[in-house]
Design a protein that fits this description.
There is one protein chain. It is built from eleven helices and 17 strands. With 367 residues, it is an alpha+beta fold. It has two domains: 176 residues, Endonuclease Chain A (Endonuclease, Chain A, 2-Layer Sandwich), CATH 3.30.870.10; 146 residues, At1g16640 B3 domain (Beta Barrel), CATH 2.40.330. The protein has an eight-stranded mixed beta sheet.
Length: 367
Amino acid sequence: MQLHIQDPANPNAPFLHEKILELCQGAMRGGGAFAFVSSDGVKLLLKDEVFKKFAGASKFELVVGIDAITNEKALKALNETSKELPKLDVKVFCHDRFPAIFHPKFCWFRHRTKSYLLTGSGNLTAKGLRGNWEGFGVGELGRDSANALEKQWGDWRQFHESRLKPVDDPAVVARAAQNVRQFRPARRTPEEIEVEAEDAGRGQEKDVQVIPTCDVLIAEIPRSGNRWKQANFRISTFRQFFGAEPGEFRRVVFQHVNADGELGALENRQSVSVKSQNYRFELDAAAGLAYPNNGRPVGVFIRIAPRTFLYRLMMPYDPDYGIVKAILDTQWTGRTDRMRCFSTNTDFLRQAWPNSPLWTTALEVQD
């Protein structure tokens, strides 16, 4: 068995998210159990095109827990996904043996000539799949071991048949309603946070928001014909900032922040490289928008974890566009006929753009 350590501070560390997607490719069947699940976790894994291709043709039996975290929104996402993928069999482990909780995290995949078992600490949540420090091991199984695993899995499911309930079962829904999601703190300015930190330093007990320093890319987005939603970048930016690599299986996740500071849906992207040496990521925020006749769209990307980004797409008519344009005007030193970009960090950006909606939310992977 090979050990993998998911490390949100290490740009070269593996993600549980990517490893599961890698193992499911070409599998004949599979199964797994996770203690907790979130709607964003469902979107990242079960709604990924690679997993959908697998589960569209091959059976996958998924068992999730309901003792904590898993809420009504997560159940809704599971229900919708299982309807889209008829070979995805989702059950919820609903029991009455408290204070014991359902707490496993593993999955297995059977291929024609080999099988894989993945066990670890990460749950089926955005943080478990990409945002937390987690450990997981992957073992390749021979035929006899794979047969024994499938028998044990089947026997366990049969033994607990009465506890394995559909996601829309009334008892399951009622239990999920008790798992209230923690709301994000209200938006505060950097000045308010600084004062609060000073007060805490004088002995007052206050919750202090720690502001991490994250890498930032400010980049003009080229027209690229009528497909500018697929934003092109230089190969150096593609590799060094976004952490993608042509020809390798990696997932890059984006989440847009609108003008009011509201987070959009997770955008789970496979990096795209083509023979023309264009290196692209599709951005949902550009969908339906015409490329401007005057000026260029500018993307501001904050790397909150390896291959994971908050971003704000700025159009020339946006009120704050002049701020990011001024940064490029003063910091770009390349040729005038090139798309301009500037690499910096959140400390610099906060000084230049203190009222940005990007500071509304915590700079971390969120569920």
